[in-house]
Amino acid sequence: MQDPTLPATGSTAGILQRPYLWVTVGTCALVFLAAFESLAVTTIMPLVSRELDGAGLYALAFAGPLATGVIGNVAAGNWSDRRGPAMPLYASVALFVAGLLIAGTAVSMPVLVAGRLVQGLGGGALTVALYVLVARIFPGALHPKIFAAFSAAWVIPSLVGPFAAGVVAQVFSWHWVFLGVVGLVIPALLMIAPVLKGMGRPATTGDTGTVRVPPWAVGRLGWAALAAVAVLGLNLSAEVRVEGFPAATAVLAMAAVGVALVAVRPLVPRGTLLARPGLPSVILARGLASASFFGAEVYLPYLLIELYAFPPTFAGLTLTGGALAWAGAAAVQGRLGARLPHPAAIRIGAFMVLGAVLLALATAALHWPAAIAIAGWVFAGGGMGLLYPRLSVMTLALSTKDNEGFNSSAMSISDSLGGALALATTGIVFAAFTTTASSFAGVFTFAAVIGAAATFVAPRVAPRAG
Predict the structure, then answer these.
(1) For residue 325, which of 370, 371, 383 has the smallest C-alpha distance?
(2) How far apart are the C-alpha atoms of 136 and 461, rounded to whole Å?
(3) Cα–Cα distance between 272 and 363 in angstroms, integer?
(4) What is the dihedral of CA 236, 161, 302, 313, to 10 degrees?
(5) Cβ neighbours around 445 below 10 Å, total
(6) How confident is the model at residue 244 (pLDDT cuts 50, 70, 90)?
(7) Which one, of 460, 317, 332, lies nearest residue 391 by Cα?
(8) Minimal CA–CA distance to 343: which of 391, 412, 408?
(9) DSSP label at 7?
(10) What is the pLDDT of residue 359?
């Protein structure tokens, strides 16, 4: 039975009408702040790395939060299935803020990375809690629109975030790029607080009429921690040197990837790593798209600063076109609804991301004008705007009340772990070449291979008939 304190799930109101208005604004505000912080950090990290002498930890500063986010994903998913999304949401925001404070006051690269790890733990939990909140609050007919709104929440930060981060870093200090977000998170959470009071888990009764609450998934939390450790080990393997064994880095890297893949199996639907049709391929497509897109994106400003002498302020604007296209494509797919079938949207999006990464590769390898990679990234953003909301909608559509937390967690785990493994591997690839140009070309080549895999999996998201 629907909790009487919550909006009626059969309501035909829009997401910006009562009773959904403040929930929509609050959740989108949290997405907005996470987006702003993500885009801002991508812009300033070359400066941070240079100031703190942290080039060896550059990739870990991005991959680390995604790795710890896997633990947050599992914990929040399990907690939400047991007691609803209210407490996981409060805890995730607290961790996110703590991570920002640690990173914003860091005076060394290891401390900054530690803050990013805490921030990732909170951010991973926040994503899952928000997805479960959407499933509990909004009727299925509104899911495409609210997920489109989440994507559209990247519009303003994409317009001002990279540029503002560059200005703040140059005029004041990069520390304030982290600290400035802290004071805005609490008001966003307060907008959602009234509805969270009624978000206890609806009773699920068995044949005996007793309430059935899922147990704490201690084993899954252990697997999540192992996956995170494997990703961190993959990042650090590039620093390992064994005399007389030049292949030590490659062996350790392959071992870490193997451990991560073994650890992730219990955390996602059965058959995910085999790309079985339906939900398993939905989850896998999410991870592959994330790996290809973010594995390339974090190196675009770096490319422009190192090879094309762009100032940080304008290098960050590289991300603006992609983020705007992401939001625009998300809005378009939300309006099209069933007129654009889910598998078609996901296939088109995957090919757009692959094409953009190939343009970035050609720019780095053939020394083409920077404008080609910048313009190409608009297609990458448009592709993500098409496929990301549809993958979210399909995940919830293929879920039940009892497993929506698990499946939302699996989607976020695939998202985070795919990006984390890609970023960790790109760090190794980048360090393996002797020239800067070839290092960037190697990174984009790897991202293109992952993007090609996403285009292969995309047609398999449709469940088998019968």
Answers:
(1) 383
(2) 24
(3) 34
(4) -140
(5) 15
(6) low
(7) 460
(8) 391
(9) P
(10) 96
